[in-house]
Amino acid sequence: MKTNIISAIKLTLLFSIFFCGIYSVIIYGIAQFAPNNGKGDIVAQNGKMYYSNIGQSFTEDKYFNSRPSAVNYKADGSAGSNKSTSNPEYLKEIDSRIQNFLAHNPGIKKSEIPADLITASGSGLDPHLSVEAAKIQVNRIAKIRNLNPSILLELIHQQTEKPLLGLFGTEKINIIKINLILDSIK
């Protein structure tokens, strides 16, 4: 028994040194080769700093609306809602999001709303929407900003991020970046 305890203590010390020290230094070193040295994708506009890789709330009608967040866009609590699709509270929340979207986007049918406009992502912090989710909001934004819808469609086309290596993922729009561009259009 004494041998097992001594072995367990040695193993605990070894793993503590490795995972608290050596591993952390290795990961920090790898991050130095990432964009912005692993500090995130920072976009500055009008004296404000935004992390374009962390979802933020855009609910005003003059913006492309963000994907809903299960954690209120708080990066320190990244998580999904963990509610099943049959949970009455979850269904009520989804229905509320649908009704809100329809109220702000007249002429859109419930069946036309892309799922990413009414459901939160697994992390609750996804800064992206599908191209379809962006396009369905064009008429509302064009009307409020007094812009030709073709300008917004071209902006969506320019801001569309392609799948990684053309294989992994889907086309998507970074809502933070496109909304900051919208603010710069006068």
Note down, in words, how this protein is organized:
The chain has 186 residues and is mainly α. The protein has two domains: 1-38; 40-184, no CATH class. 44% of the residues lie in helices and 9% in strands. The protein is built from six helices and five strands. It has helices at residues 2-31, 88-104, 131-135, 138-145, 149-159, 175-184; strands spanning 42-45, 48-51, 128-130, 160-161, 172-174. The strands form two sheets. It has a three-stranded antiparallel sheet. A hairpin with a 2-residue loop joins strand 1 and strand 2 (48-51). The mean pLDDT is 87.
Which helices and strands, and how do they pair?
Blueprint: H1 2-31, E1 42-45, E2 48-51, H2 88-104, E3 128-130, H3 131-135, H4 138-145, H5 149-159, E4 160-161, E5 172-174, H6 175-184
Antiparallel strand pairs: 1-2, 3-5, 4-5
Summarize the structure.
The protein has 186 residues and is mainly α. The protein contains six helices and five strands, in the order H-E-E-H-E-H-H-H-E-E-H. The strands form two sheets. A three-stranded antiparallel sheet has the order 3-5-4. Strands 1-2 form a two-stranded antiparallel ribbon.
List keywords for this structure.
3-stranded antiparallel sheet; mainly alpha; 186 residues; two-stranded antiparallel ribbon; single chain; 2 domains
**Proportion of helical residues:** 40-55%
Count of alpha and pi helical runs:
6
Strand content: 5-15%
Structural class: mainly alpha
Largest beta-sheet characterization = 3 strands, antiparallel
State the end-to-end distance. Answer: 76 Å
What is the total domain count? Answer: 2
Tell the overall outline: extended
Residue stretches low in confidence (pLDDT < 50, at least 5 long) are none
Q: What's the Cα radius of gyration? A: 22 Å
Number of E-type strands? 5
What is the N-to-C succession of helices and strands? HEEHEHHHEEH
